[in-house]
Structures are given as structure tokens and as C-alpha cells.
Amino acid sequence: MSVKQIKQACLIWTNISSVNEESIDFLKKNFKFHQLDIEDIKSESQNPKLDTYKDYIFLVVHFPQWKVESKRVISHEIDIFVGPDYLVTIQHGKNKDIKDFFYKSMNNRKTRNEWINKSPGYLLYKILEELFSQCRIMIDALGKQISNVENEIFDDKPDGDIIRELAIYRRNVLNLKRILDPQRFLVASLSNTRKPFLDESLSIYFDNIKDYLDKLWVIVDTYKETLDGLHITVESLINQKTNKVINSLTIISVSLLPLTLLSGIYGMNIESLPFAHNPAFVWGLFGAIAGFILLLIFVMKKRKVL
């Protein structure tokens, strides 16, 4: 069954692990939520939001989640209803963090007494704190990966694989920024929302989450600047390498021009060409020009012109 509940004192926490007909029927039967909220639950929302009603509030919160198969940071949505004596969390897809948090609350009496014995607003704070704290682990791991790529760029010559890695990390950092930025404003709005189950005493707790998200935002923004700098560096190194190759090819082409000219002249069937009947001299002329070209290249190499 996708619906699980924890009952403690005057508070019931209902966790719905997947959105299906069973869970939708359960919500319609046991709660009087607005039809628009039910519609929002059925289809994942692209934007987080906070809707305030007379008897409850409805939140759509997005959390960054690491997708191992594709090595991507994706957005995971959790819908939350908070009322006078209940809290409902609805997952869109599997989320290990909230699952562990729920079962920890269910199986550990001390944790259950600490988190669920208080108001629904305080339980909401603990859920948001737990889920956003997991983001720091992901962000720190991403920072280590970026540092490793930076060392590879400056220790070795960058290749196509490093460029692809940089592109992946840039995409993940941009996804993190895209996910975290709206949550900062959502939590700030939550801090200023006043309900009997979400009173002024909880503002300091939600302000604490807002400050934490601001710190994460600064860290991710620093990663973005680092990746932008590394991208410019890699482009410069590759351009320098390309310029060296083009420079070498140009020198080779120009060096062969005199020999090409002579071979074109003496390749013509004209009897009156100078020394046309003296092959030794012609071959000597070709050898002298080739030797001069090699000497010129050697001098340029010595002076690091090439």
C-alpha cells in the first residue's frame, strides 16, 4: 500500500509514496482539499509554490536528487499538506531520504516524541531541514569532482573526455541553481505565513533553513564561476594546441614551395632550360635548397619560433 501513517498525540503524519488512484481516493475520502490541489498532485508541477487556505496550506517543494545512471542532478517533487492536526507528504517517484526519515520516525520512539509530539508546523520544519541537509552531501561530492577535473586540466593536456566532463558538471551546477533558487523564496514565504499550526515562534526555524539554502546557493554559484573559468582555460589550451598544429603545417607548406617551383620548371619538356642536360647540377640545386630549408627550420626551432 502506498499510504502509511504515524499517529502521535494530536498529530497524524500521512506519507504517500506514489501517486495513483488509491492515494487520490484516500485524499478525497479523508480530507477536504481543494480540487485544484488534487489536480496539482496528479501531474508534477514545474514550479514550487505555497498556497494558503483557511484550514490548511499546500506546498510544492523541489529537492535536488542525484541520478546515478545518467550522472545528472534532477529535481524531485514532494507535495505537502499541513493542517491543524495533520501533515501529508506526497512523493512523485522514489526518494530514499524522506522514506528513511519517515521510518525512522515510525520505529524510533525518541525521534517520534521529539519531532511529532509538537505542532504540524514544527514537523514540516524537521522534514524540510532533513531533506535540504542531504543536498549538502551531494554538493560537496560535486565540488570534489570539479577539483579533480581542475587538477587533470592543469596536470595533463586536456582532451575530449575532460571537455565532456566539464559539460556534465556545468549542466549539474545549472540544474542545482535552477532547483535551489525558487526554494529560497518559498521558505522565506513560509516563514512569514501565520496560521494556528504555523505560528510566529516557528519563523526562526524557517529562517534558519532560508540561511542554509542561501549558503548552498553561494557554494553552487562559486562552482559555476569555477567551471566557467575552467571552460575558458580549456578552450585557450585547445586553441593554442590547434594554432601550433596550423603553424607547423603552414611552415611545411611554405618550405616546400621553392622545391615545388623548381620541380615544376624542370618538369617541363623544354630544351633551353639552364643546365637541363646536367642532371647532377639540378639535383645539387634541389639538395642545396632542401638543406637551406632544414637549416632555417633548425634555427627557428632553436630560437623557439616554432
UniProtKB/TrEMBL annotation:
Keywords, A to Z?
Answer: Cell membrane, Membrane, Transmembrane, Transmembrane helix, Transport
Q: List membrane-spanning regions.
A: 245-268, 280-300
Recorded topology in the membrane:
Multi-pass membrane protein
What CDD domains does this protein's entry cite? TmCorA-like
Q: Domain of life of the organism in this record?
A: Bacteria
Subcellular compartments: Cell membrane
Q: What InterPro entries does the record tag this protein with?
A: CorA_cytoplasmic_dom, CorA_TM1_TM2, MgTranspt_CorA/ZnTranspt_ZntB
One GO CC annotation, please?
A: plasma membrane
Q: Which GO terms describe its molecular function?
A: cobalt ion binding; cobalt ion transmembrane transporter activity; magnesium ion binding; magnesium ion transmembrane transporter activity
Family per UniProt? Belongs to the CorA metal ion transporter (MIT) (TC 1.A.35) family.
This chain belongs to the protein called Magnesium transporter CorA
Q: Which organism is it from?
A: Candidatus Magasanikbacteria bacterium CG1_02_32_51
State the organism's lineage.
Bacteria, Candidatus Magasanikiibacteriota
